[in-house]
Amino acid sequence: MTPQDLRIRRVAIDTWRENVAYLHRECPVVRASGFQALSKIMVHANGRTISAVLNVVDDERIVEACELGLSEDAFARIDVAEGHTARVTPSEPPASIGALHRKIAGERLTREDLFALIADVAQARYSKIELAAFVVATNGYDLDRDEVVHLTEAMIDAGRRLDWQRQVRGGPVVDKHCIGGIPGNRTSMVVVPIVTAHGMLCPKTSSRAITSPAGTADTMEMLANVELPFDRLAQIVRDTNGCLAWGGTADLSPADDILISVERPLAIDSPGQMVASILSKKIAAGSTHLVLDIPVGPTAKVRSMPGAQRLRKLFEYVAQHLGLHLEVVITDGTQPVGNGIGPVLEARDVMRVLRNDPQGPADLRDKSLRLAARVIEFDPDVRGGEGWRIARDILESGRALAQMEAIIDAQGRRTPAPVPGAITHEVTADQDGRVAAIDNLQLARIARLAGAPQVIGAGVDLLCKVGDAVRAGQPLYRIHASYSADLAFARDRAARDSGYRIAAEAHAG
Amino acid sequence: MTPQDLRIRRVAIDTWRENVAYLHRECPVVRASGFQALSKIMVHANGRTISAVLNVVDDERIVEACELGLSEDAFARIDVAEGHTARVTPSEPPASIGALHRKIAGERLTREDLFALIADVAQARYSKIELAAFVVATNGYDLDRDEVVHLTEAMIDAGRRLDWQRQVRGGPVVDKHCIGGIPGNRTSMVVVPIVTAHGMLCPKTSSRAITSPAGTADTMEMLANVELPFDRLAQIVRDTNGCLAWGGTADLSPADDILISVERPLAIDSPGQMVASILSKKIAAGSTHLVLDIPVGPTAKVRSMPGAQRLRKLFEYVAQHLGLHLEVVITDGTQPVGNGIGPVLEARDVMRVLRNDPQGPADLRDKSLRLAARVIEFDPDVRGGEGWRIARDILESGRALAQMEAIIDAQGRRTPAPVPGAITHEVTADQDGRVAAIDNLQLARIARLAGAPQVIGAGVDLLCKVGDAVRAGQPLYRIHASYSADLAFARDRAARDSGYRIAAEAHAG
Description:
Shape of chain A: globular
Strand order of the largest sheet of chain A: 1-6-3-5-4-7
Oligomer: homodimer
C-alpha cells in the first residue's frame, strides 16, 4: 500500500441513489488535496471508477484516517469487497456537464447532448444537486417536443430492453398506464387480467408510490412478489401472457429511476419528464400499443381540459416518433377512484371487482372495463366498439379472476394476506347535505400521514363519494393505522381539513 | 421517555450547511411513520424545531434504534447536549415553498415572497436539492431587477447589520469589491490600507475562495486572524478605521452563505444572485459608498463589454434603490493580476507592493492605486481627479504599509509567516515568441490541483505575463505544492494545457 491507498469500508447509510464517500478529516488525501465537504471525488478500485460526493468525518468509528467509507449506493456500484484498496482523485466533471449548463442557460439540447447527459445520469456521475438543476432546467414545457423525443430515446438506450416478437409474431404487445395523481386508481390490476385472459401479451411494469399513498407495484405487492429480476419477469410473461411487476428491478430505464429520486422530494413532475419517463419504460418493456389514462380535475395532476389536450399532443408526438401506437383517454379525475386508499385497502377493492363482489366499487369496475375495452380493440380481430362487451364477459365469467390468480402464483403468492391497520378513526360530516367535492391531494396526504405506503395496512377507506347524500355526524371515511402516533398525525390533518366539501341541498324535502 | 422519544447523538459528519438526521432502519419512528431516505423530517428538542434531511442507517455504531443522529450542522443548530431527548415528526414544507414552485414555473415573485423565502433559507428549512432548485430557477437574468432589489433587502433582513454613523457622523463608509474570477487579483489588501490611512472608514469583509484558488479572506489569513466575531470586528474598525476580515463569522448575510454552498458545486454565479450577494453584504456591513470592479476578458466571469454594461446597470439599479452610492469600474480581465496565485504567494505580492519593493508586481500596484483613487474621491474634501496622487503618496510614503501592520496587529498577527510550498515544478515555453494570452480558468484550475487554497503554500507563481518575449524552454510559471500527489495532479493538468498561448513573432529581429 502506498500512502495514497485507502481501505474501502462499507458505511451502512442509505443515501437514496447518491454515491457518498466518507473520508476522515485527518486522512492524508483530504489534507493534501484540499478536498472540501460536498466536493466531488473519483474513486478508483479494481479497474472501476465511480464519482461520489464527499462528506468529511471526524469520528473514527465511522471511518479511520486510512479508510474510504462508501455509502450503500456507492459500495454497491464500485462492487468490490470491504478492505479492498482504493484511490481517490479530484473529480473530473461528467463529460455532459457543458450540456447541463447550456440547458440551465435556456438553450435547446441536441440528441447527442441528451444521450451523453442521460448516460452520465444512469452511471451516477451526477450529484443530487446537479440532478436537481437538470430537473428544474427541464421543468414545465422547457423541453421542446423534439428534445422530449431524444430524452426518451436516451433513457431507453441507457437501460435494458425486453423483446416479445418471438411470442407475438408481429401482433401487438399491449400496455395501459395512468399519469397518476388520483388515489385508489388501481385499474391496471383489473385491466391486465382481462386483456391477458383475452390472449394479449401485456408485460406490465409499474412504479412504487412517488408522492402518493400507493403505487400499483405497492398494491400488487399485497398479493404477490413484485421484485422480479429481468429473466424471471420475461419467463412469467411467456407463461401467463402478463405480469404486474415493479419496474425498478428490471433495469428498464435506470436513468429515470435516478431522476425520480430528485423529482419526488422537489414535487416536480413536468410534462417533458413525465412523457419521457412513461414512454421510455413502456418501449423498453417491449410494448407496441399503449392506452394512456390522463385524469382531469381541480385536484388532479392536470387541472383543465386545455392542459390535458396539450399534454396529450406531446405524448402522441413522442410516441409516433418512436413507433409506439398510443391511444390517450382523458378521464374524470375529480375524486379518488374506488374506496380504499393505501396498499391493503386498494388491493381489497381490486379483488372485489375481480370476484364480481357486490361490495366492489362500481367506479373502479366501470373505468377498468372502459380502459380494457380500448386495449382489446388493439386486437386486429376485434371490431371497433366490441371491446367493452368482450371485457365485461371476461370479468363476469370469472376468467379475469382466474387469470389474476395465475399471475399471482407465477410471481409468488404472498401469504398470509395482509389486513387493514387495526387502529381506526372515522371522520364525519359536519352538516346535512350532499358530497360536492373530494380533494385528491388532501386525502392522499391523510393516507400518507396514516403510514401508507410503508405501513401497508394504513390508509383511508372512503364510505361515501361525490353526489352521495349525508347527514351531520355520518362517517365520511375511516382512517386505518397500525401505530397510534401515525393515527394522531393523520387525524390532526383531517381535523384541520377533511378534504370533503358538503353542500347543503337548496330544496330540501 | 415515551416510545416516540429518541436520544440525540452527534454524528461527526460534515454535511456542508445541510441538516442531516440519521435514524436506524429499525427505529420505531422510521418503521411507524413511513419515513423514507431523503424525505425531510422535523426535529423537536428543548423547545426548538429544525428541519433535516433523513438518511436511513443500518449500523448501530453510527446510531442505535433509539437514537437520533444529527450531522455537525444539525447538531449545532438544535443546540442541545448529546443524550437530550428529541422527537421527530413528518416535515411540514417551509411556508415559502409555494413561492419556490411559482419561481420554478417562471413567475415573478413579490417582495413578500422573497422575504419569506430567504428567511426560510437562512433558518436552514430548505434541503440542498430545494436550494439547487432555487438557484437554477433564478439563474441568468431570470430575476428581474425589482426582484433583485427585494432579494437583496431580504438577505440583509435575515442577518445582522453594522452601523458606523456614530463614527463617521454622516461621512462616507467606504468599500471596494470585485466580482471575482481573476486569479491573484488581491487589490483589496492594498486599497484598504491606503484609504483607511487617508482617514476613511472601510469595514471590509471578504469571502473565502468559492471556486478559485484563493479569496481575499484566505490570503489575509496568511498575515492575520480573519475569523472575527461581530463585536470584535466592530471594535477593530473603530480603532483602526478598517479591517480585512472573513464575512462568514460576522453573520451579515447568512442566507447568502447557504446559497453559495449550492452555487459553488453547481458552478452557477448568475447576475441576480451576484448582485444580491455582494450588495447585501456591503449594506449589512454598514457601507454607504462602494467601488465595484468588473473585470472583462475571454476567460473572466464577464466575457464582453455589452455583458459588463448590462451587469453594471443591474448593480446600479439595485444600489440606487437601497441608498448605496456605487461607482462601477470595468477593468482588464484578460490575464491574472500580480504573479502569485494561491494564499501565500498572493500575500507575498501584496506585501511587496505595500513595501514599495521593486519585485512587487506593477499591474497589482497600478490597479490598486486606480481603485483606491476612486474610493478616496468619495471624500467630499477631495477634488475630482486628485484621488490618484493622494493614493500614490500614501503608498510611496510607507503610510499604507504602516496602516496594514496596524490592521494585522489589531486582528491578530500570524506567526511565523507561512512560506510557499517547497515542492516545485516549472512549466516552460514550447517555442520562441511572445505571450499572447493567459487563461485565467486554466491557471486557477492548476493552482487548485496543486492544493490551493486549503494547502496554503500551494499555487502558481507566474514568471512572465502577456506581452513578454520568451524563448523555447524558458520557464513560464512555477507550480508550488506541499505534497507530491498534488504536484502530480497539477503537473498532469499543465502538461495537457499550460494555459499560456505563445505567438511566434511575425517579424523576428
